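Hello Y.,

Per our agreement to keep a running log of every chain we model this quarter, I'm adding this entry. I've kept the format consistent with earlier entries: sequence first, then predicted structure.
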Amino acid sequence: MIKNQPSKMAIEAGRCLRKAVHEELQRKALLGQYVIIDRNGRACRVSAKQALKIAKNK
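Predicted structure for the entry above:
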């Protein structure tokens, strides 16, 4: 049986992962560290502060 909508557990897991990634980006931004993100299919090194700004715009 194919479902069109994800289950409640999958939705909650997605929220949990987004929250964990956001917290880690904040921690790295405070420490002045860099992160690797995907930009147009390529790995790119940016500051965590900039990555937070990018995430906020999406």
